[in-house]
Amino acid sequence: MPLRRCWQKWVNHGRTQCQEGSGRPRETTGREDRAIVRAALTAPDASLSSIVRATSASATIHRRLTERGLRPSRMAFATDMLRRIEDDAEFLKRIMFSDEAYFHVFGIVNRHNMRIWGSENPFEYREAQRDSPKVNVWCGLMHDRVIGPFFYTEKTVSSVVYLDMLENFVFPQLEELQPHVFLQEDGAPPH
């Protein structure tokens, strides 16, 4: 909280903490909250959407569960990955991690999206201008190779453009490894 706002709260109300009961009203009742927690404890591997269907509650379920210390776990995913690694020692070597990023042509760094890691604290940066020229670059990483970089010529990457890049650029480079490569992608809409 900014110091000025903190000081104003102290002057006006004699405290810096929020007043109990202030803020947006709850969307669920105590009974619904208990039903949400009961559904999560009964079926620990249930997804949030399945709990919504089971309890007829709104999308505040995640908040209600975390308020009670229940965090979503990816136990099924973790168990499956461990089983695959135990069954095949080469499994992790066949995963290609991929991502894309925009790079400003003139070396401008967007502080909000860019983290610079180093042994010293880097204080120097350049502010990004709106709509400055930039290029979108895709790259894939495996344990023993780098696929790319691939420079998109289109301004916007649609699912058609992304699929074209995979078929004409990525898959030919992985020809000798097919069909045993797993492509890991982030949740970007074109994927």
From TrEMBL:
InterPro entries: RNaseH_sf (IPR036397)
GO molecular function annotations of the record: nucleic acid binding
Domain of life where this protein originates: Eukaryota
Gene3D superfamilies, sorted: Ribonuclease H-like superfamily/Ribonuclease H
PANTHER family from the UniProt entry: HTH PSQ-TYPE DOMAIN-CONTAINING PROTEIN, TRANSPOSABLE ELEMENT TC3 TRANSPOSASE-LIKE PROTEIN
Protein name: Transposable element Tc3 transposase
The organism of origin for this protein: Stegodyphus mimosarum
